[in-house]
Amino acid sequence: MKIFCIGRNYVAHIAELGNDRPTAPVVFMKPDTALLRNNEDFYIPDFSQDIHHEVELVLRVGKEGKNIQPQFAHKYIDGIGLGIDFTARDLQAGLKAKGLPWEISKSFNSSAPISQIVPVPAWETLQQLHFHLDVNGERRQTGDTTLMLFPLEELVAYISQFFHLKHGDLIYTGTPEGVAAVKAGDRLQGYLPSVQEAPMFDFLVK
Ligand code: ZN
């Protein structure tokens, strides 16, 4: 399976990192070894002093497809979840400055915690879905799919121009503003209130 991630999909997050607004979705990938499931602890790796959380709505592909038109995108997504795109911001900054690929700062082991996947609510619901991340009980990031620069159907269509989508592939759809460093002892809880009251994920940083 493949894990796609979208960068720079919320205007306020682009501003907080001082990036340019993209004219097409920014796509990168993580290997399956990045997944961290079942609320397992996340261990801060030795190679970074600045691991940031990025909470993101995640889509699961339920049907094979390529060159998908935006109006048919919903037929290819069978589940949603909430995930974190952990980013070694210090490594990423160095790579970005040199114009180099940023894989090691984004795609390292356990860099993609994922909640359970639940069936897709009505597509209309998905287009105005609220989510948030609490760190140690305090609201840290709040997202809403209405604020996406490239809406969900455009992301699916765009990715499918380059990559054959297969059942089980995941798409991390970008993070809203509020990214910040995690430290040992932090508790991260992600919520999708229209799906369930309990956290979608709830894990510790060590
Ligand atoms: Zn991200």
How would you describe this structure to a colleague?
By secondary structure, the protein is α+β, with helices and mostly antiparallel strands. It has a single domain, classed as Fumarylacetoacetate hydrolase, domain 2. Helices cover 17% and strands 31% of the residues. It is built from five helices and 15 strands. It has helices spanning 11-16, 89-97, 103-106, 123-126, 152-162; strands at residues 3-7, 26-30, 35-36, 51-53, 55-61, 77-84, 87-88, 112-113, 118-119, 130-135, 138-144, 170-172, 180-181, 187-191, 201-204. Strands 2-1-12-5-6-9 form a six-stranded mixed β-sheet, covered by helices on one side. The chain is globular, with a radius of gyration of 16 Å. It binds zinc ion. Zinc ion (ZN) is lined by residues 5, 7, 54, 56, 85, 174-175.
Summary?
Helix content is 17%, strand content 31%. The protein has helices at 11-16, 89-97, 103-106, 123-126, 152-162, and strands spanning 3-7, 26-30, 35-36, 51-53, 55-61, 77-84, 87-88, 112-113, 118-119, 130-135, 138-144, 170-172, 180-181, 187-191, 201-204.
Output the CATH class name.
Answer: Alpha Beta
CATH homologous superfamily (4th level) name: Fumarylacetoacetase-like, C-terminal domain
Assembly state (oligomeric): single chain
Domain count: the total is 1
Number of separate helices = 5
Q: What is the average per-residue confidence, as pLDDT, rounded to a whole number?
A: 96
Strand order in the sheet with the most strands: 2-1-12-5-6-9
Structure ligands: zinc ion
Number of strands: 15
Structural class: alpha+beta
CATH architectural name: Alpha-Beta Complex
> Portion of residues in helices?
10-25%
Q: Give the overall shape, derived from the CA principal axes.
A: globular
Residue stretches low in confidence (pLDDT < 50, at least 5 long) are none
State the distance separating the first and last CA atoms.
Answer: 28 Å
